[in-house]
Write a structure and sequence with these properties.
Elements (H helix, E strand, L loop, with lengths): L1 H24 L3 E7 L4 E5 L4 E3 L2 E5 L3 E6 L12 E3 L5 E3 L9 H4 E9 L4 E3 L3 E6 L7 E5 L1 E2 L4 E6 L8 E8 L3 E3 L9 E3 L5 E3 L10 E8 L5 E3 L3 E2 L2 E2 L5 E8 L2 E5 L4 E10 L3 E6 L6 E2 L6 E4 L2 E4 L8 E9 L2 E12 L3 E5 L2 E4 L5 E9 L2 E2 L4 E6 L2 E2 L5 E2 L2 E4 L8 E8 L5 E10 L2 E7 L4 E3 L5 E10 L3 E6 L2 E2 L6 E7 L5 E7 L8 E9 L2 E11 L1 E5 L5 E4 L4 E3 L3 E4 L3 E6 L2 E2 L6 E3 L5 E3 L4 H4 L1 E8 L5 E11 L3 E2 L6 E5 L4 E9 L5 E6 L2 E2 L6 E5 L4 E6 L8 E8 L4 E18 L4 E4 L4 E3 L2 E5 L3 E7 L7 E3 L6 E3 L5 E3 L8 E8 L6 E10 ...
Parallel strand pairs: 2-10, 12-21, 23-30, 32-40, 42-49, 51-59, 61-68, 69-77, 79-86, 119-127, 142-144
Antiparallel strand pairs: 1-4, 3-7, 5-8, 6-7, 8-9, 8-10, 11-13, 13-17, 14-15, 14-18, 16-17, 18-19, 18-20, 22-24, 24-28, 25-26, 25-29, 27-28, 29-30, 31-33, 33-34, 33-38, 35-36, 35-39, 37-38, 39-40, 41-43, 43-47, 44-45, 44-48, 46-47, 48-49, 50-53, 52-57, 54-55, 54-58, 56-57, 58-59, 60-62, 62-66, ...
């Protein structure tokens, strides 16, 4: 019984638990994190840390913490606490209390409820013990203009915790991190400071780095650091010195890619991205900024990640680096579905979705967890988790955890619920048959979801309620329900059909089986049964006993069934379907009996009731607003009474407190009324009607729209600094309102801005605002607004205050005080007030002024906190030690250590030395003598300049940072001696100064630019740049040279092209010739000086423009079209603009017909000028092919001519046939023959033969006959005898019929005289060919051939043959076969004769080649063509080769008669020869000429000019070494000390020293004798010289005399010991001795022949020596030579042979004011350098002379004119002259010009030597009859003083000549002048001999402005007389002219041409002239004057010695005839040099 009772109690409890859990289970929700702790938490030991973790769920989850191994986290007193809200707190701790398992470990947060369990990510906790640290600055220096990097170096132990917050640009400019910088400074987010565009001024600026500890907030500032700028010269290719190889940032952050390169010039940067198929340039945009070495990207996205490449390049090359950008995009993890309900046995599938910015992310490391435990990987397929055959143990919480390689994790949760499953019987009982008495147990087991409920019935009715029956039920751990029915003592009445029914909301299942008990039949009590109308009624007879035979049913005495609706089942049950109320209500009786006949019966009542039926509601949802009235009506349309009508809300009965009322209208109607709707009225309302039959329900949803209202209203809050705070704000309403947080931007009533989700700011789903790591900037007013669209919404403003615990800016500080003074200990604390401050000694003893009389304490409030002060009076050593300032307030406490040190005066420092010496700073270091470093508070470093002449005051700096024991003294002067000393200062005073240290600072790059920069053009491609050295105080060392930069002004490039020029170390002036520049272009020029350190600043740019030049390209697109038979139209386009080289003034058209004449009788080359781009050529030959060329010209001359364009004029009607013959061939026939037209003007298409018969004067007949063009004869037959026939012929082209020939008449006769019908004339054939000379005749005559009147016989000529037809055939033609061949016929009736002129064309003969001038790099040559071979010359070939070199050849135009070879090697011999070509062949080459260019091997300088020794160095002035005309290539320099050992080794300074102004040889020993050996090399040779010198003493004094004397004694030994020096020395002495003897001999001859001139000759000789020195000095300074040319007179003639060429002569011009072409020229006289070369076309007989065309290797000789010069327009054919200024001026800006005024002149570039005297005048060319030349020049040589200048130069006075020897000619001709040998010499060619020298051909007669015409006539009369006497004296005494030659020549003003009786051309003066008139000769060379060249007309046979004796005029005449004088030079000349008449003094 007790067991049964216990089972029953268990059953009831289980039943109640299951019943209660069913409605609650629908509201279960698994846990989810509201605030998941971060993956990493760091904190300092002074502040502590905390980990927040909160979760939500239903029921509310519990939060626990576990370790990584899963063990629970427990509290540790004072160390670790777990708060009730789930926060894990790690308290502040001392350094000694550090525990790794607490402060450096992994924690996890676990949230769990009845549904499941979830675990957070791993939280790595790291506690950091605060330590003091220092930061330094690392400088990555750069070159000027580049980028420097300053990096803050943080110690490694705190590097991860310290970040750079800013940099300080001293004194107080703060630079903060930025993505784009400010252009100059750029602080990267990583902390590096970039300084762009470095300049010298940046070196003086200081920078500090400010860093902050992100846990303790401590700010540490570095010591100041200065920049260093690298010094580079020249071009340095870039190299990448710093770049960020890998940059990793998070999405939406800014990324900075750094790539710094260094190079010179500053490199330019380009950025490329390699994320696509190929590299793509990175372009600037809204997010992307290109900042040179920085690529900044704002708000990066995943698309920005990839590989980037930066390229830095300059003119030296380029460098590149690759950088990788990785963007960490946040990922979102979600499990789909997040709630999954699966029936038991089904399959559950979860998928982990990993996305980033809405896009799927590829393969990730995914782990699955269930209820906090990791699942095995076998259940995971990639991102999908499959749970097959779901059972109850599978339900719970699932987590998907994604772990990235970076270490951060992300997770999502999902819940797996079991779905509703209908019950399933797992176990059931079976049918049993028993005897009465034993116990029976029936068992059923069922499973389902929800858990099913099991009930029991017996025969369809509840089990009997007696003590024998016990029902038990329980639920297994698997959720199965097991139910038992136990019958303790079975009896007969317990038998029947037992059924167990399992039921839940998903379904119902039952099992029934009989329990049979042997016994008599027994029917149990049948309870009243209520049936429902319309349904099925099943009545079971509760019969017991066994066995039972039969069961019957009765009603009203009738056995059932008695209706079709009734049926008795085999088991005895009665079924009625459907039940009807009226017919089926009543009493039913059941009876049963067994086989023995025993029976039992029992009756029961059946009542039938009708279930209720309701009228449906009108709508499913009724939506109203809050405050409205609502009513719901429930009507029952059918059902039996009594009816019960109830209202329910959400399944629960109506609560009377909800202000709802129910009105019962009647038994069938009920109304629910709500007077005032509220938010709690929203729900599902049901009307439930019940009667005994059934319960029916009708529902309607009511939705009340409710405006928001607070659930959790926000309130003001306080939070401690660096802590987290949750601001709660929750509202409800219908619909659910949205929560928005806003923060006031100012005061409470100000503007608000919305708070958005960002780092440390989280907006939770329930509306709460979570603020993490709160700082003061989060303080303020916050507004929470809730709105759902109903009403205006609600809002609440709260105030958040940030409570700050006390904190100090630094953890410790020290105070040093002198013993006996008052110590002042201060501390400033920040935090919220009130703050309480307590001072402690040694951290434990509180200092109280009341107990210690020595101390006093005071404190005062500051804006940020409190400042406290502790005073200790009269301190002593016992007061030293640590003091603590402890501050506390309501929110915490902090303390600061103040270390007090009481010290005595320290000892002076020792071991003072210089650790680093630079140009402006010295780093001094020392060692302290004091044992304790704390004794010294600072050091005083004193310094001053160590100047023995002036003692300065000591300057002082303080060093407050011991124990570094060093100091940087800055702002010093470069290259200066300084004295330093150090004083230690402690709290008790200062020490004595240390010993002085003497230091010399290093030099520094110049600080000032060069001055007086000027640039002037020398030519079209050259600028002469000159400047003055920087100021001495800005040089900062020896100026080693200069960098000259230049660039085109028009170019957009900002970079200059730099050229280095060596300096002189003394800061002298400099200049540089820039060559190879663009023509007629403006350049900007800058100069910077550099010393041994580096370059200085650039000067201000100056501009200059190169001169104009001729165009370097021909006109383009030249086209030609024929307009008519005599006109062509030519068009073209201008040359490219960059090749015009000036302002185009027009175009010249050069054209000539292509005619294969034997020897053209006239020059067919013509030229026309125009300014248009088209021209029509008229008056041309008809039907002729023309060669057309076009050139453009500027005012400087003609440019390059275009390639020949060939164009054909159109056809026209031909001219008349050249001749016609009519002869009688018989009595009735005439034979007509004719010649084609000389001018066919086209292609002959036919001939027309006209015939006219004349009888007397009457024309009888007229006839025209057309004949083919190949036929030139016709025989008219059948004529009337004795009649006159007239014939004439015309030729026709396709244009028409031409002119008729002459009319030839003939009378027919019976007698036929002999007549030749062939035509004679000129016949041209090439040699070695065959010619047929026709002689066709009528009358059957006898023929005879003659050659030059000599009869030819058959076989008389070996190569001739006479044919029977009369023709003469000559084969293998030779030149000798040419001549006149005549054919004579005779038949007795008549005779006739015909002559052929045969001309045989052969190759031409060799031309006559001669050289007219030579310079150091060019040779000018002319030639005269010989016999042309009866064919026009087609071209020339010039062969030339350097000695021992290869032969080069050059093709020259057929028109050329001169050429200048350029680009030759100085001082070298060349072999030159020339050949000519015609159509037949090539001529032999001309005679080989051996020509040497000017220049010699280097000379030897004077030792005093070359060397300047110092104490330890030697200055070698390399510029003083003479180059002798050939530029120096390099030097070899070596030296050795002169010792007793003659074999002492040489010290090589350089074996390839480039020419420079000077060089310094260092590391010499003072007061030492040295020997210096030098070699100078140029292309002409080598010169070697040895020198001895003595260095000065150590103090700079002269060396001791004994060393100097030993140097003089040893010098001879050194020189004579060297054979290389001995032999040249002997030769030089011998040569000098011979020269002296020759001078004495010549001098005696001069005295003998010209005693009156002795005094003058002595003066001249003295000047000549000085002039020679001036000439040699000036030669070295020569920069440029300009070739001038003038036209020749029409009767000039070129030399016939090479012997006729005059020797080289050197001249200079002197002008002295007066009537000048440039009257404004004045001031100091300057040197003007010109080279005049005369060129004229050769118009010789038999030689074609069109204008010369430029060959392919030849430069056009067009030259430039000054802007002031005048030009004259003339005919295009006239010869011209041009001039170019090329003077090198030393001072002043005087322009020099030579202007030629001729009768007719034009600009031309043609070079031609001389004109043939007998040549025919050209068509359209006027001859020259008069020319006037004006010139202006200066005569000061370069680099000479004024005294020497005055000695050598005289303005408006005569200048004496020097002695020059000339050899007279031995020719017998008495009327030739200016030629040493016979011949027609009209030109004297000359070349340069020195810089200020000039060569002339013929001296030009120049009108001297200071001599009147009458004076000139009188003087020339004297010259004529002296010339006549000179003829005789010179014949007997060849040397008698030596004195006369020294005298200057007066240039005569005018020129006339006279015809002498002998036909020779003479020259005279204004009517004074005869056959013996003296002629002006070309003067001897001069170093001071240049003549204006002119072609003089001279007699052909007058020898030069006629002018060697001249009488000396009276001294008064000399005063009356001041004029321009020509001063001869003393340059060495050959015997061909000529003499000049001498003016009286």
């Amino acid at each position: 019984m007790w067991i049964s009772s216990r089972f029953f109690v268990i059953f009831l409890l289980l039943h109640l638990d299951t019943t209660c859990s069913e409605p609650f289970e629908a509201h279960l929700r698994g846990p989810g994190f509201v605030m998941e702790p971060p993956g990493r938490v760091e904190f300092s030991n002074s502040s502590g840390g905390w980990l927040d973790c909160s979760a939500s769920g239903s029921p509310q989850p519990t939060v626990d913490w576990v370790h990584a191994d899963g063990s629970a986290v427990t509290e540790i007193h004072g160390v670790r606490r777990v708060l009730r809200n789930g926060t894990l707190v790690l308290m502040p701790f001392a350094a000694a209390a550090y525990h790794q398992d607490v402060h450096n470990t992994i924690y996890r947060c676990i949230a769990s409820n009845s549904v499941g369990r979830i675990v957070s990510r791993d939280v790595q906790v790291r506690a950091v013990v605060a330590q003091a640290y220092k930061v330094d600055v690392e400088v990555l220096s750069a070159s000027r203009g580049c980028t420097a990097i300053l990096r803050c170096v943080v110690p490694t132990f705190v590097k991860e915790l310290v970040r750079v917050v800013s940099w300080v640009h001293e004194p107080a400019i703060y630079i903060y991190p930025s993505l784009q910088g400010d252009g100059k400074f750029h602080l990267l987010p990583t902390g590096e400071l970039l300084i762009h565009n470095l300049q010298e001024s940046d070196e003086s600026q200081s920078f500090r780095c400010r860093s902050m500890h992100r846990l303790t907030r401590q700010v540490v500032v570095s010591s100041p650091t200065r920049l260093r700028i690298n010094s580079h010269r020249g071009i340095i290719s870039p190299s990448v010195v710093e770049h960020t190889a890998h940059v990793q940032v998070s999405q939406d952050e800014g990324a900075v890619l750094l790539c710094v390169a260094q190079g010179c010039p500053s490199p330019e940067y380009s950025w490329f991205t390699h994320n696509g198929a190929g590299p793509l340039p990175v372009l600037s945009g809204p997010r992307v900024r290109l900042l040179g070495p920085i690529l900044a990207i704002e708000a990066v996205t995943g698309e920005d990640s990839g590989v980037y490449k930066c390229t830095a390049g300059n003119v030296g090359g380029e460098a590149s680096a690759e950088l990788r950008l990785t963007v960490a995009t946040p990922i979102q993890v979600e499990i789909s579905p997040n709630v999954l309900s699966v029936h038991m046995g089904g399959t559950a599938e979860f998928r982990c979705l990993v996305t980033s910015n809405g896009s799927p992310v590829g393969m990730q490391n995914i782990l699955w967890y269930k209820d906090g435990r990791q699942l095995p990987s076998s259940g995971r397929v990639e991102d999908t988790l499959v749970v097959p055959r779901v059972s109850r143990e599978n339900r719970g919480m699932y987590q998907c955890v994604v772990r990235r390689p970076e270490g951060d994790t992300f997770q999502a949760t999902a819940e797996l619920q079991l779905g509703d499953a209908p019950p399933v019987l797992l176990y059931s009982f079976i049918e049993q048959t028993l005897q009465p008495g034993p116990a029976v147990s029936l068992k059923c087991s069922a499973a389902g979801n929800p858990t099913p409920q099991i009930s029991w019935t017996l025969d369809g009715f509840p089990l009997p309620s007696n003590g024998r029956f016990m029902i038990g039920q329980y639920i297994t751990v698997h959720g199965d329900v097991i139910s038992h029915v136990n019958i303790s003592h079975v009896m007969v009445e317990d038998g029947g059909e037992y059924a167990c029914i399992a039921e839940n909301r998903a379904g119902r299942v039952q099992h029934a089986a009989r329990l049979n008990i042997y016994g008599l039949p027994y029917i149990r009590l049948i309870p009243k049964v209520t049936a429902v109308s319309g349904e099925t009624l099943n009545l079971k007879c509760p019969v017991a006993g066994y066995p039972i035979e039969e069961i019957h049913w009765e009603r009203g005495g009738r056995e059932l069934p008695d209706d079709i609706r009734q049926r008795v089942q085999p088991d005895g049950s009665l079924t009625i379907s459907p039940v009807q109320k009226n017919s089926d209500s009543g009493v039913y009786t059941c009876w049963a009996r067994n086989k023995q006949g025993h029976s039992a019966r029992r009756s029961g009542e059946v009542t039938v009731i009708v279930p209720p039926k309701l009228s449906p509601f009108q709508t499913n949802i009724l939506q109203l607003n809050m405050g409205d009235r609502a009513s719901l009506t429930c009507s029952v349309v059918k059902g039996d009474l009594p009816l019960t009508i109830n209202w329910r809300k959400d399944g629960r009965p109506i609560d009377p407190t909800q202000h709802m009322s129910v009105k019962q209208v009647d038994q069938y109607n009920s109304i629910l009324v709500i007077e005032n709707l509220g938010s709690d009225h929203t729900g599902n309302y049901s009307c439930v009607v019940r009667n005994s039959a059934a319960e029916v329900e009708n529902s309607q949803a009511l939705l009340v729209n409710v405006p928001p209202r607070w659930i959790v209203e926000p309130v003001d809050a306080n939070v401690e600094r660096n802590r987290h705070i949750m601001l709660h704000c929750q509202a409800q309403g219908v619909p659910t309102p949205s929560i928005v947080w806003k923060k006031a931007t100012g005061s409470k009533s100000g503007e608000y801005e919305e708070v958005r989700e960002r780092p440390f700011t989280k907006l939770l789903g329930n509306g709460s605002l979570l603020l993490q790591h709160v700082k003061e900037d989060r303080e303020g007013f916050y507004l929470c607004q809730a709105n759902n669209g109903i009403g205006t919404g609600i809002g609440k403003v709260i105030q958040l205050k940030v409570n700050s615990s006390p904190y100090f800016s630094s953890t410790s500080r020290s105070v040093m005080v002198k013993k006996g003074d008052t110590a002042l200990l201060q501390c400033a604390v920040s935090g919220d007030k009130p703050i309480n401050i307590v001072w402690l000694r040694s951290g434990k003893n509180t200092l109280n002024p009341s107990t210690n009389y020595k101390i006093s304490v005071k404190q005062e409030a500051t804006p940020d906190g409190v400042s406290a002060e502790l005073q200790i009076r009269t301190v002593d050593a016992t007061d030293s030690g640590p003091y603590f300032c402890r501050a506390s307030n309501l929110y915490g406490n902090d303390q600061q250590l103040v270390q007090l040190q009481v010290q005595e005066p320290p000892l002076p420092p020792s071991v003072l030395e210089a650790a680093m010496i630079s140009s402006r700073s010295v780093n001094i270091k020392w060692q302290p003598k004091t044992m304790g470093t704390g004794d010294v508070t600072k050091y005083l470093v004193e310094f001053r300049e160590s100047d023995p002449l002036f003692v300065e005051q000591w300057q002082q700096i303080e060093v407050k940072d011991p124990p570094m024991f060093n100091a940087m003294i800055e702002n010093l002067k470069p290259a200066t001696r300084y004295a330093f000393r150090v004083i230690a200062e402690g709290s008790a005073g200062r020490s004595a100064p240390s010993q002085e240290l003497i230091v010399r600072t290093e030099p520094q790059r110049p600080a000032g630019p060069p001055l007086s920069l000027s640039a002037r053009p020398l030519s079209s491609t050259e600028l002469l740049i000159s400047w003055v050295a920087p100021l001495p105080e800005l040089r900062h060392g020896d100026i080693q040279g200069y960098n000259v930069g230049y660039k085109l002004s028009s170019s957009g490039n900002t970079a200059y092209n730099f050229t280095s020029v060596a300096g002189d170390y003394d800061g002298g002036n400099g200049e540089l010739l820039l060559s190879g520049l663009a023509k007629f272009a403006r350049y900007n020029v800058v100069v910077q000086a550099f010393n041994q350190v580096g370059p200085g600043p650039l000067s201000e740019p100056t501009g200059a423009q190169t001169m104009e030049d001729v165009p370097s390209r021909p006109p383009e697109d030249v086209r030609c079209a024929a307009l008519s038979s005599q006109s062509l139209q030519v068009s073209w386009q201008p040359p490219p603009i960059y090749h015009t080289n000036g302002l185009l003034q027009g175009y010249k058209l050069v054209f000539e017909p292509i005619i294969d004449d034997i020897q053209p009788s006239k020059d067919e080359v013509e030229s026309r000028k125009t300014t248009a781009l088209t021209m029509v050529l008229t008056g041309l030959r008809k039907y002729t092919n023309y060669s057309i060329q076009v050139l453009a010209h500027t005012r400087m001359g003609d440019g390059v001519v275009s390639k020949p364009l060939f164009c054909h004029s159109e056809e026209d009607v031909p001219e008349a046939p050249a001749d016609i013959k009519v002869v009688s061939s018989s009595s009735q026939s005439l034979y007509i023959s004719w010649l084609p037209p000389n001018e066919p003007n086209g292609v002959i298409t036919k001939y027309s033969l006209y015939t006219r018969v004349v009888n007397g004067r009457e024309e009888l007949n007229n006839e025209k006959r057309s004949l083919p063009s190949q036929q030139a004869y016709y025989e008219a037959k059948g004529l009337h005898p004795h009649m006159e026939y007239q014939f004439w012929v015309t030729a026709s082209t396709r244009v028409g019929e031409g002119k008729s020939s002459r009319v030839s008449s003939q009378i027919t006769t019976n007698r036929v005289p002999a007549r030749i019908i062939s035509f004679g004339g000129s016949v041209v054939r090439p040699w070695r060919s065959t010619v047929t000379l026709p002689c066709t005749a009528v009358g059957k005559p006898k023929r005879e051939w003659f050659k030059s009147d000599v009869a030819l016989r058959q076989g008389g000529m070996h190569n001739s043959q006479l044919l029977d037809s009369g023709d003469l055939i000559i084969s293998s033609l030779q030149l000798a076969d040419g001549g006149n061949y005549s054919c004579q016929v005779d038949n007795g009736i008549g005779t006739d004769r015909l002559t052929h002129t045969l001309m045989v064309q052969v190759p031409p003969t060799a031309p006559v080649l001669y050289v007219t001038s030579a310079t150091s790099s060019s040779i000018l040559m002319h030639w005269k063509c010989g016999f042309t071979g009866n064919a026009p010359i087609t071209g020339y070939t010039l062969f030339y080769r350097r000695t021992n070199g290869n032969t080069d050849e050059m093709q020259l135009s057929r028109h050329a008669s001169s050429h200048e070879l350029k680009g030759l090697v100085c001082g070298s011999t060349y072999q030159i020869h020339l050949s000519a070509q015609n159509k037949v062949g090539t001529s032999p080459t001309s005679t080989m000429l051996h020509v040497r260019t000017q220049g010699q091997s280097p000379g030897h300088p004077a030792s005093t000019a070359l060397l300047a020794p110092n104490s330890t160095s030697l200055l070698v002035r390399l510029h003083s070494w003479p180059d002798n005309g050939c530029p120096l290539l390099y030097f070899v320099l070596q030296y050795r000390a002169v010792t007793e050992d003659p074999d002492a080794e040489w010290v090589l300074v350089s074996n390839a020293l480039k020419p420079q102004r000077r060089i310094v040889v260092n590391n010499l020993t003072p007061s030492t004798l040295y020997q210096l050996r030098m070699e100078a090399h140029n292309v002409a040779g080598i010169s070697q010289a040895d020198f001895t010198f003595v260095t000065l003493t150590k103090d700079g004094d002269p060396p001791p005399p004994e060393i100097v004397h030993r140097g003089h004694r040893g010098q001879t030994t050194v020189i004579f010991a060297n054979m290389n020096l001995l032999i040249p020395s002997i030769a030089a002495v011998s040569g000098m001795f011979c020269t002296i003897i020759m001078v004495i001999v010549c001098y005696r001859h001069m005295l003998k022949n010209a005693q009156p001139h002795a005094e003058q000759a002595n003066h001249i000789q003295k000047e000549s020596l000085e002039n020679r020195a001036n000439s040699e000095a000036a030669q070295r300074e020569r920069y440029y030579a300009t070739i001038h040319k003038v036209s020749m007179q029409n009767n000039d003639k070129i030399p016939e042979t090479s012997e006729d060429i005059s020797p080289y002569a050197t001249f200079q011009l002197s002008e002295a004011g007066g009537n000048m072409s440039q009257p404004h020229h004045g001031g100091p006289a300057n040197t003007l350098l010109h080279s005049f070369m005369y060129h004229e076309r050769a118009l010789a007989e038999g030689c074609s002379s069109p204008p010369p065309a430029a060959s392919k290797n030849r430069r056009r000789h067009s030259r430039k004119t000054e802007p002031e010069s005048e030009e004259s327009e003339s005919d295009q054919d006239q010869l011209t002259s041009s001039r170019t200024e090329s003077s090198n001026q030393h001072e002043g800006k005087i322009k020099h010009s030579i202007i030629y005024h001729g009768a007719q002149s034009s600009t031309s570039s043609d070079l031609s030597p001389m004109s043939e005297q007998k040549s025919l005048p050209r068509r359209g060319r006027s001859r020259y009859h008069h020319q006037q030349y004006q010139f202006s020049t200066n005569t000061t040589p370069r680099h000479h003083n004024s005294n020497k200048m005055n000695n050598n130069t005289t303005s408006n006075t005569n200048t004496t000549a020097t002695n020059t020897t000339a050899t007279p000619s031995t020719s017998s001709n008495s009327n030739k002048i200016l030629s040493p040998r016979g011949g027609n010499l009209k030109s004297i060619s000359s070349t340069f001999k020195s810089q200020d020298s000039i060569q002339c051909h013929i001296p030009t007669l120049v009108k001297s402005p200071s001599i009147s015409t009458q004076q000139q006539k009188q003087f020339h009369k004297q010259q004529l007389q002296s010339s006549s006497n000179a003829q005789h004296s010179s014949s007997s005494n060849p040397n008698s002219s030596s004195l006369k030659q020294q005298q200057p020549l007066l240039i005569t003003p005018k020129l006339h041409q006279l015809e002498a009786s002998n036909g020779q051309e003479l020259m005279g003066l204004d009517g004074i002239g005869n056959s013996h008139s003296p002629l002006v000769a070309c003067m001897p060379p001069s170093s001071q004057f240049r003549p204006i060249p002119h072609k003089s007309i001279m007699p052909a046979h007058e020898p030069p010695h006629h002018h060697q004796n001249h009488q000396q005029p009276h001294p008064q005449q000399q005063q009356q005839h001041p004029g321009t004088l020509l001063n001869p030079s003393t340059a060495m000349l050959s015997s061909k040099f000529f003499t000049a008449p001498t003016l009286p003094k």
